[in-house]
């Protein structure tokens, strides 16, 4: 029965469906059988996909219809000193990507930051959100519902928190659009990214809203959460961690290591990341923060689709004149909605768990939430390094051509 | 010399730097040495990260400072019939993710689409963009520069296309903000995602602009491209492939397989994906298209950071009454800026190349560009399935509670 | 001395400057002299501009360098029954505009609303905002400043409210971007639109922030207010009044008076106001709410430049089936940031004050704030009427052509 | 019959409706009767509204249900030298507003600009747009329709231009969202703002699309135009005139007249107008451009509701070091979608026509379009002056407090 060929035969004869194999065999055998089937139906050889090196059973919470694994090259950048609210000391950051030159660039940035005695970083806000949408008869009922919710936050808190041992309700923000009422629940989910926790807790609270008000639940997510979409509500109000990181780099270091000046970098940042993004109607005012966020997410088992909003970043670069006439570079990144966790989801998978170990952040922190805070701060410093390195490259190329201009 | 311990010793003694190992050993040995170092410095065991199963040399174009690989579970969904401009017939879609339930959900959607005789899909626009920013003295010079560019597109085309055997310049769109001039170059890059091609070609054209006009290049990317940021310019004008997919599902099928009605699904879509996203100030009018885009990108070796804009999707769901009184569900997704390729970048890596083989789309298409078009169309159908399945789940839960309401 | 020709001569001789005339003559004489000067310098005849019919002195708080007045045609629409949180009963709405057909269209909509027994309306949020920006050394100081502010809201409230007899501080929301800290102060400004009140109060609070934290004020407005710019922060969080209005129109009335069906109107609204606006990257999901807002603002002395954000509106239209098989039309508008007042600013000017009298809303309300609430609700109903009328016109044209289609 | 009291009586008896008065009396008598009725029904005295000084008949194309006029104070700022593509020489700009201090502020800015030998200005793009939305069966028909349109632009041009003696079709840009096809028509409407011209011409072209493709027109405006909504499509692609203006102000002048420095102004601009607007999710990157646009629109008879998108402005301020060590201020504004005309609409009304005379721009230009171009350029210079003056005020206040800081 648990022989892959046997399973293949059963699927071919219509006795089994492709997603039912795990009901009849262990996870690895099921994956093998499924791979065989796909190989035969598509006339392919999936040897390397099948050459994964963890027990398939470990991935059962993470995937269905498994045939194997994608292997994404992983490297490491750093070390860099981070002076954060939660992170402290020297850290290596593992990154998984297929984009050549990315790690080299981030590494160069980190090395300059380290030489400038490290970066500061702070989580300035924290809250995982879920925003159900309710139907009401009209604006009068909407106002009535909002009033009830505002007056009964404690009852809703009790319902929501009854579903979780860790999560805490922070706030419920109501929004009305005609006969739709949206309630944006925000939770402190500690070291978990917390989407599931927030969804389950909110579901329980919704039952109370439905029983006590005229409102009927239409969808447990009404897109004001807003999950996996680039939305201003996240950019403004935050989701997951709002985190900032910055560094002050002595002018000498800018010249020696980045081969340009603070003024040239600041100009490139203003024309590209501020004015250019403004003209583009962008929600992202940065050069390539998504590169670092995506690669860190992949390495550490975060939700890859959340890169969409997690990469939301404003980068600032300023030339600061010192009293001695030299000019330092002030550089910062501010990520509004970085959703990260060190427990749950993909963080338990073997390679991802090891990457979190490299950071010293695997599992729950002490106090609770501090590991996820630290992860957010270190990713922010990585993004800062990436911005610094790319803008310096642009500016130094420009300086070179400016020098040529003078030679005309 | 090529012994890992030897390399470790040299780094420890300061004779080598962490990123220089590949200069002194083969790629696998260098990765091993680097892993050893990180293990010792962070007091960790990186056994599974080191247990990658491809020659490290193959990943050299994709990563620096390699220590191993992240293994992301990969599964498969489908098959589904796609009637596209480029894709045709039944396809399996490989997806790599750590998000449990995702493949089950997409698979359910695909199965309903298939039962409804498949989805239509079309690439409606194609163009990889790069938008440098130039400095001019002021608006008078800006107008002068724009005029020169408009009058000399052919000269710029010649310069740009001199750098590439495949890419073709489609258009140059100028934008002026004070003393900054942005030129958005769009290219047909065929089966390559094409960022590098577009960047190199644009660099060559910029040299011409600089020599013939008063404009000085500040940055080869001025963020009107817009790469790896969620920007309205991409949502409106497209980047990579603009692709749409849709399906008409008979009412009977909606009831039997999705346990709800077209009206209930359409209501959930309107309140959540349209009105909710509108209120959220979102650039994404969908439920979770990013999940499918991210998982397909990971499986097939696309640039994971581009999920940010590639997931830009408007989902529509409508109830269409038939003459016989029954009501069908019309469902569509429109992705504005899906950047995909079947050659170059991460597509060459072993597991990723195999995933493209499953799709029958590895390498260049015939005619050129048709493989990338087909990949875009199939990903769009996958996203359609994900939207359908999730909205149906929301709507059926709602229907259930609506039935309870009636019983009050 | 107070003779206009005398003043003209002095300006011509360089003894007086154009804006200093009021220092040497009464307001009307100064305006006359200034008009004479402009007439001579531009070779024009400004007879009608000079033919204003109020004492120029009355306009001194509203304008400098006065030469006369623009006369904008004013009409009236209604009456319409409004069942609001503040507004109640039948109301006429005065509108000033130069756009032909606007009043006819709004009037048609109001007449249908009235026949459907009137509209409901509710102010769901109220708060005039001002958001100064401070400079700090970096993210560490930023976090420190935010913490101080969060812990000292009462001290800031005291400072802020010391400047005003009416205004009350509702909330202070902090935002950090690198070395910039933004504090968004929200006030209940009662029947005043309240920008000046909010600015003065915030200025006083800023002095406290500067004295107690390392933060230095850069600008009293840091654009997170956000005044006279279309910003998602207002669309999401509101500014001035957030107000909604709706109506349920029996199907029979839709057919008889609007010559179309609820389904056709709902379709036009979805494709145009929701999907079309989504694709356009818009912050406005409506047809022409700005027309009504601008015309009501002009008539009642509101700040015309605030139309930019005051017109921010989501319009929804749904077909609601009744048990008897007929289909009603549910229509709503939700304006996120309608800044209105019934005291101060342009509301004191003669024609504007009379327009407020027509509404029964001139001056302070009882309780305080209720007049401005009622004005917001009535403008919302006007906007609802405009949306209804235009969408019905589009839908009926479409129905007509649909009928022709059937005849093919 | 034409006696106002007689008309009032007829309305009261139900023999006439409020909007039918003009059918039974001349425009002034009708307005008088309507005013009497409103006065009696609302127990008010509308003396000043009724004290308008133009023949009511002149306003018939602009308003229905007229009761009189709103009188808005009008002043004048300038003169300022403008070196534009169309505007040239010294200009006074009339502004109508109720916002005290606005004209004083703009006037100060213009005076500094004039002292710096004036501003440059350029219209960089011109096109009035209208974007109908069509329904198709699905994405296959959508692709088919877009292909037909792309191949038949000349046929559509012929149809569109058959309706107008002045307007010229520039371009048709197609957009697909599922089963909706949007076609964005852009026209050169010369000296007219051109909305009506564009609408009528597009209507004619739509008939051709409907007869030659499977597409059915749902609405003549599908919101990708986008009229009277703040939309990225306008910010990116323009609507009406895209216009920029700038000035280079010697450092000495900045100090003497603005009491601050180029560096301080640039800092305020970056933190407020760029970074602050970025964080606010704004489509407006300026301080208060809407103030000048709204006031100029009111004075010159433009469409007041279009201020919503016409005020879309990016303001840049940079400190430019000179070789002699002093620092100049470079200031610019770029308005993406300024819809203006010098013929048609409200421009014919008496006070508005006189205001255009002050500018020397009443009626059609020579060549056609040059008057509207010049008006756009002068309004842009006015907006530049407003930005300059407000940012200088913020910066000088800041400098003052910075000086105090030093004294601590």
From TrEMBL, chains A, B, C, D:
Cross-referenced Pfam families: HMG-CoA_red
One GO term (biological process): sterol biosynthetic process
S-adenosyl-L-methionine is among the record's keywords: no
GO MF: hydroxymethylglutaryl-CoA reductase (NADPH) activity
Catalytic activity, EC: 1.1.1.34
CDD domains, sorted: HMG-CoA_reductase_classI
Catalysed conversion reaction: (R)-mevalonate + 2 NADP(+) + CoA = (3S)-3-hydroxy-3-methylglutaryl-CoA + 2 NADPH + 2 H(+)
Membrane-crossing residue ranges in chain numbering: none
Keywords carried by this UniProt record: NADP, Oxidoreductase
Domain of life: Archaea
Enzyme class of the recorded protein, top EC level: oxidoreductase
Similarity comment: family membership: Belongs to the HMG-CoA reductase family.
Protein name as catalogued: 3-hydroxy-3-methylglutaryl coenzyme A reductase
UniProt source species: Natronorubrum bangense
Gene designation per UniProt: hmgA
């Amino acid at each position: 029965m648990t022989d892959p060929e046997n399973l293949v035969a059963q699927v071919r004869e219509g006795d089994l469906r492709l997603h039912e194999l795990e009901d009849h065999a262990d996870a690895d055998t099921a994956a093998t059988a499924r791979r065989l089937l796909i190989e035969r139906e598509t006339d392919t050889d999936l040897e390397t996909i099948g050459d994964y090196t963890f027990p398939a059973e470990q991935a059962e919470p993470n995937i269905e219809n498994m045939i194997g694994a994608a292997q994404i090259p992983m490297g490491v950048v750093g070390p860099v000193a981070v002076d954060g609210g939660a992170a402290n000391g020297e850290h290596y950051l593992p990154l998984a990507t297929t984009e050549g030159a990315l790690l080299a660039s981030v590494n160069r940035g980190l090395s300059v930051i380290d030489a400038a005695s490290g970066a500061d970083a702070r989580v300035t806000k924290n809250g995982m959100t879920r925003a159900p949408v309710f139907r009401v008869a009209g604006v009068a009922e909407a106002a009535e519902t909002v009033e009830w919710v505002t007056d009964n936050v404690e009852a809703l808190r009790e319902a929501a928190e009854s579903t979780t041992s860790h999560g805490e309700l922070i706030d419920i923000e109501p929004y009305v659009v005609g006969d739709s009422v949206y309630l944006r629940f925000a939770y402190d989910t500690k070291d978990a990214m917390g989407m599931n926790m927030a969804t389950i807790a909110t579901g329980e609270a919704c039952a109370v809203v439905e029983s006590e008000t005229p409102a009927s639940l239409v969808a447990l997510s009404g897109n004001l959460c807003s999950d996996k979409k680039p939305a201003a509500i996240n950019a403004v109000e935050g989701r997951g961690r709002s985190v900032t990181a910055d560094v002050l780099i002595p002018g000498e270091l800018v010249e020696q290591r980045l081969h340009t000046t603070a003024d040239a970098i600041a100009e490139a940042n203003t024309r590209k990341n501020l004015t250019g993004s403004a003209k583009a109607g962008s929600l992202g005012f940065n050069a390539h923060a998504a590169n670092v966020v995506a690669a860190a997410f992949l390495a550490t088992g975060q939700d890859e689709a959340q890169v969409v909003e997690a990469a939301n970043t404003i980068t600032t670069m300023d030339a600061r004149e010192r009293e001695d006439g030299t000019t330092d570079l002030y550089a910062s990144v501010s990520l509004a909605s970085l959703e990260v966790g060190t427990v749950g989801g993909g963080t338990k998978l073997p390679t991802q768990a090891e990457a979190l170990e490299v950071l010293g952040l695997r599992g729950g922190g002490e106090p609770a939430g501090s590991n996820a805070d630290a992860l957010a701060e270190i990713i922010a410093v990585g993004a800062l390094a990436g911005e610094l390195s790319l803008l310096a490259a642009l500016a130094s190329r420009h300086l070179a051509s400016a020098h040529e201009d003078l030679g005309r």
